[in-house]
Amino acid sequence: MLIKRKLVSYKVDSLSLVINFNISMIKPDRVVMKLFLCLILCLSFKLLAAETTVSGKVLSTPGCAKKTMVWLSLDKENYHERLLLMHTEVPQGGTFEFYVKPGDYQVRVSDEEGCEYLKKVSVKDGSISLSIQMVKK
């Protein structure tokens, strides 16, 4: 199979990357093509980004339901409504973990019995671990 001219376009975040092949009378090797595609994938992902987490354990609270919902939302002063990013269901005594970018967040835990927990967290580098003791309202 001979390739004379092929135009390949990739979208990397807000940068458009256009690669123009002008290969004449060369048979491309499959290994070389796989390596080239791996290179493009590496460029499209931010491999050096720091991985930060918000994790915690929901402690058992008498009078609260066995299952709780943990909500993670952005915490911005100029937001009229909170922007929900992630949520999960966790039993009492269970743990949760959210992978996030550095920033300010709000962790809310609630159940059907009216027990609640609310904490504002600021994630910079590394991880934040919470021990959540809900309060019946």
CATH class of the largest domain: Mainly Beta
First-last Cα distance: 72 Å
Strand content: over 45%
Structural class: mainly beta
Please give the largest β-sheet: 5 strands, antiparallel
Strand order within the widest beta sheet:
5-4-7-8-10
Could you explain the architecture of this structure?
It is a single chain. It is elongated, with a radius of gyration of 24 Å. The chain has two domains: 6-44, no CATH class; 52-136, Sandwich (Immunoglobulin-like). A five-stranded antiparallel sheet has the order 5-4-7-8-10, with no helix packed on it. The chain has a three-stranded mixed sheet with strand order 6-3-9, with no helix packed on it. It has 137 residues and is mainly beta. The N and C termini lie far apart (72 Å). A hairpin with a 4-residue loop joins strand 7 and strand 8 (115-123). Residues 1-7 and 12-25 have low confidence and may be disordered. The chain has one helix at 30-44; strands at residues 6-12, 15-21, 52-58, 67-74, 84-91, 95-100, 103-110, 115-123, 127-132, 135-136.
